Amino acid sequence: MKNLKVGVLGAGTMGLQIAAFLSAKNIITIVWNYRIKNDFDKKITRLIKLHKRLGDLESNISLNPIIHTDKLEDLKDCDVIIESITENKDEKIKLFKKLDKILINPKVIASNTSTISITELAKNSKYKEKFLGTHFFNPLMSLPLVEIIKTSDTLDDTIKFIIDFLSTLNKHCILIPDTPGFIVNRLLFLMINEAIIMVEENISSIKNIDTCMKLGANHNMGPLELADLIGLDICLNILNTLFKTTGEIKYKPAKMLVKNVKELKLGKKTKIGFYKY
Questions:
Q1: What's the mean pLDDT in 62-89?
Q2: pLDDT band at 1, cuts 50/70/90?
Q3: How far apart are CA 31 and CA 22, in angstroms?
Q4: Tens digit of pLDDT for each residue in 76-87?
Q5: Could you tell me whether strands 80-83 and 66-69 are parallel, antiparallel, or unpaired per DSSP bridges?
Q6: Which domain CATH number covers 126?
Q7: Which of the residues 83, 87, 147, 225 is marked catalytic?
């Protein structure tokens, strides 16, 4: 299993984490991005150092070299494809259509989407029976869960292959159907949205709300801290998708979240969100 070649599409937050994780597990990894990122190697090194410090990786671990490319053709002989580009259905579909003409004999084609229907993405691929979702979580090296999302066309052999592969890398896979928000996000973003509404209504301070959930519900991180870590723009995108796909008013994004995103207060990545960094 560890002799497989994996292609990662996208060099954003999750694409980098997936690549660093695979490299640390000695997997041959190729990362495609629509343009070469000059700071790619620096960011990968920083990620590895951070997780060594946190104890997620052994201090003496060495990385398998990662190939970084802007040419999709370089992924043609990959066994596994994990797409992790921007959360835009049309952009993802465009990319999968290009891959149809390039890939030789992939065993699995996966999307790391957190909001978009896997069925919708799969129907635009000629590899429907090999298509599924692999929803990793941030920070990827600390959190063992991967939600595996199947469609009605996904073969049992495809599901078994990806679960066996990720299990050898010490990931805990949960198989679920293609339902809006899957499991974690469907529950998590209700809590995050309600926490923001409580701030809007002056029920308590940001810090107190987070502290209550940490000390009273045994959460490692409060919902507002977590929202900042995820990125408030991503939180808004996920809530809008859940609101649209389920029709449930409970997923309508809080006004403060919309306001923060408009003001580009997106959390840790912009140094200001519900907290300052």
A1: 94
A2: low
A3: 11
A4: 999 999 999 998
A5: unpaired
A6: 3.40.50.720
A7: 147
| Mean pLDDT, range 131-159, rounded to an integer | 96
Asked if pLDDT for residue 269 goes beyond 70, the answer is yes
Q: Is there a catalytic annotation at residue 60?
A: no
Q: Single out the catalytic residue among 23, 51, 87, 135.
A: 135
Q: What is the pLDDT of residue 2?
A: 65
Specify the CATH number for the domain of residue 253: 1.10.1040.10
Annotated active-site residue 58? The verdict is no
Q: How far apart are CA 249 and CA 185, in angstroms?
A: 16
C-alpha 201/C-alpha 224 separation (Å) is 15
Q: Model-level pTM greater than 0.85?
A: yes
For residue 275, tell me if it sits in a domain.
Answer: no
Is it the case that residue 122 has pLDDT exceeding 70? yes
Catalytic status, residue 167 = no
Do both 72 and 204 map to the same domain? no
Catalytic residue among 23, 111, 112, 114: 114
C-alpha–C-alpha distance, residues 66 and 35, integer Å: 16
Residue 231 sits in which domain range?
A: 184-270
- For residues 166 and 207, membership in a common domain is answered with no
Residue 152: which of 120, 186, 116 has the closest Cα? 120
* % the chain with pLDDT above 90: 88
Catalytic residue among 23, 117, 125, 185: 185
Q: What is the reported pLDDT for 135?
A: 97
Per-residue burial over 187-216, b if 16 or more Cβ lie within 10 Å, else e, is ebbbbbbebbbbbeeeeeebeebbebbeee
Same domain, 97 and 206: no
User: What phi and psi, each to the nearest 5 degrees, are found at residue 104?
Assistant: -90, -60
Task: Please provide the distance, in angstroms rounded to a whole number, between the alpha carbons at the two ends of the chain.
Answer: 41
Confidence category of residue 58, pLDDT binned at 50, 70, 90: confident
Active site residue 88: no
